[in-house]
Amino acid sequence: MKMSPTPQHVRVVLADDHELVRSGIKSLLSMVDGVEVIAEASDGSELIQLVDSLTPDLVMTDISMPGMDGITAIAEIHQRHPQVKLLVLSMYDTVDFVKRAVANGACGYLMKDAPPFELEQAVRSVMATGSYYSPVIAQRLLQPSEPTADDELTTRQVEILKLIAQGRASKEIAFELGLSPKTVDVHRARIMDRLQLNDIASLTLYAVRKGLVKP
Length: 215
What we know:
Elements: E1 10-15, H1 19-30, E2 35-41, H2 44-54, E3 58-61, H3 70-80, E4 85-90, H4 95-103, E5 108-111, H5 116-129, E6 132-133, H6 135-141, H7 149-152, H8 155-165, H9 170-177, H10 181-195, H11 200-209
Parallel strand pairs: 1-2, 1-3, 3-4, 4-5, 5-6
């Protein structure tokens, strides 16, 4: 049964690093009355630039993208444009991902494997009520969850862990973050001690599980 038309014209900026995924979502959204995709981005930096110049009503973004990821982009957009609604469209269904997204400003979370009608439902719900969560996500949010990376580590430690998991050496990390290699090594030792992990492989697996880097 087709839902009633949206009460307003909804301008959407869509972000995903896979062109085929963006094309599919854009095609589905084009069939929704009152909804228009006005621009597309393939990474977080490009997304922020588009939002700054276009100020859309709604941003739909993936989390895992090259360069600046979706979570970082969401936080930046929320700070600059608090009126813009931010809806995550992701393949990851862990509570950790969802909580990180929401903590940074997302108001909804939609699974990529959701049926097509749910895309329209999510857009309408976010614009009308300010939030939407896929049923599987809503159910998991009600269940007890393990601590997130942000609960277990400081902001700087999370930043360094992400770079370690991307295969960066201490000197590279130090240069990128404006630290000394020795400081990076101290942070790495503290991260390992805090997480009770003993090698880079284990740190990388942790980072992937917590949604800090792509698998």
